[in-house]
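BACKBONE STRUCTURE TOKENS:
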Amino acid sequence: MKNKYRIVLSSLLMAVLFIVSCVPALAVVSNYDSQYLSSDQQSEIASYTNAWNTANAAGNTAAAEAAHEAAETVRSTANYSGGQDGSQYIPLGGGNSGSGYSGGGYYYPLAPTTYTITATAGTGGSISPSGSTSVTSGNSQSYSMAANPGYTIADVKVDGSSVGVPSTYSFSDVTASHTISVTFASAASLNAGSAIIGDNGSGTLKNGTTKSGYGITVSLPVTASYVSGTTVTASYNFTSAKTVSLEYVNGTWQFPVNSSSATNARKIYIPVETPDGTYTITFTVKALDPQATALTGSNVYLTTTQNVSVTVKGTMYSDDFTGNS
């Protein structure tokens, strides 16, 4: 009886082995392999897939990788690639086929081609995004440039060439690496308006003419942006060269209070011995430009000047001159 069981069991094992030998490998040749490869190439793919499965089961990473590379070499004549286990999974330029091996390996997409765009900004502003940005081939990448208060965009360069002073820039259909950089300049400004010369502290001069011995006042408007430490001086030479610093009073720059004035008037006096003639008073306005200083590393000053002519005719002791208003 035991012999009969042994005969039956042996027969069953032989049948199972026969059936198993007829079953294709777990990772079969895919539809794309059947479509694009010859029968011999398909047989190679099946062989390499089985080799990958064996190596993977044994933990032999090197052998598994070699089997995969071998399958890829076979497929290099066609327009698609293989999965990690050596089986086909995706046609190049298309999406996942869904018909590859799914019994122990896994599908994964081909790594897309990427390019690097490097963005930098100088002192006085920013660029966003900054640093290195990875962009997938064919995609776009936009940048925004912004100046800090007191600065303005001076230049934007793409791959070393100026593109003007845009506040935004976009790379379209990226197929190569690029650079973009932005530099900034100071937006500081300093301007002196027209100086108004007064007669003896009360009104303007008639035709710009006054007598020696009298005092004259000034009102000088100054407009400034993003500067500091503004100073204004007046230089003149009636009988000798002199320079006096003006003071900011009630929205304009005026002469300082003269100690010789009984009424504490803000004026300069024309010496009595001043000869008749036309004289020039030069007003010099100066201020520090903090932005340009930061850009250059050294103090940078803005200056502007205004000239006013004053005609002296007669003296305050004369009775025959009535040219004053």
User: Anything to note?
Assistant: The longest strand covers residues 301-315.
